[in-house]
Design brief:
Number of strands: 9
Number of domains: 1
Largest sheet: 5 strands, parallel
Bound molecules: guanosine-5'-monophosphate
Radius of gyration: 16 Å
Shape: globular
CATH topology: Rossmann fold
Strand order of the largest sheet: 2-7-1-8-9
Strand content: 15-25%
CATH superfamily: P-loop containing nucleotide triphosphate hydrolases
Number of helices: 8
Structural class: alpha/beta
Length: about 200
């Protein structure tokens, strides 16, 4: 099967990956979102099969054993996330490029496996307070009903930012409309230009 391309968005939780990923999907019909598997509980606004495949832990572990994941990580303690190989191939079969919103280690893992047809973008902000505010807003909107999640996510930021230099591009998402313009250009060049 002919390989398509892949665009990997990574970075700390709350930096704006989901917003940017929805924006890219609205601008590039040639992109399709890779739906990951996760063992974390479903949130109010989420749909199984659209946002994630929500799996019980034993089912996730059985897929690991059967080598069904292209990559997987225990992103937070006891919470597993992973990309099924068949999800990637399904999207390429549709002649679309794959868009990922995955954690830093998973993103770098995919980049290593697909060095010639991947674009990796690290999205972050330069202040932990901005991240905190965004995560709290998400919590109050009841999109994520567990407040302890905020601290778990904030504790990871320093470690995640250390990996930024390994990505093809780093975008500081301070002003969303400026970030959107930059990301459109980067993705356009990648799809139609350099690789
Ligand atoms: P959330 O629980 O907020 O949806 O996602 C938590 C983190 O897991 C985010 O950084 C998200 O990008 C990451 N993530 C989502 N899907 C995957 C995946 O398939 N693999 C990896 N390694 N990380 C993922």
């Amino acid at each position: 099967m002919k390989k398509g391309k892949m665009i990997i968005l990574s970075g700390p939780s709350g930096a704006g990956k989901t917003t940017i990923s929805h924006y890219l999907l609205s601008k590039f019909p040639e992109l399709k979102f890779s739906v990951s598997c996760t063992t974390r509980p479903i949130r109010n606004n989420e749909i199984h099969g659209k946002d994630y495949y929500f799996l019980p832990v034993d089912s996730f572990l059985s897929k690991i054993k059967k080598y069904q994941f292209a990559e997987w990580e225990e992103v937070y303690p006891k919470l597993f996330y992973g990309t099924l190989k068949k999800e990637i191939f399904k999207i390429w079969k549709l002649k679309k490029h794959v868009l990922f919103d995955i954690d830093v280690k998973g993103g770098l893992n995919l980049k290593k496996q697909y060095p010639n047809n991947s674009l990796s973008i690290f999205i972050t902000v330069n202040s932990i307070n901005i991240l905190k505010k965004r995560l709290i807003t998400r919590c109050y909107k009841n999109l994520d009903n567990n407040k302890t999640n905020i601290n778990i996510r904030l504790n990871k930021v320093k470690e995640e930012n250390n990996y930024a230099k390994l990505f093809d591009f780093v975008l500081l998402n301070i002003n969303l409309s400026k970030t959107k313009k930059k990301v459109i250009q980067i993705v356009y060049d990648f799809i139609y230009g350099r690789k």
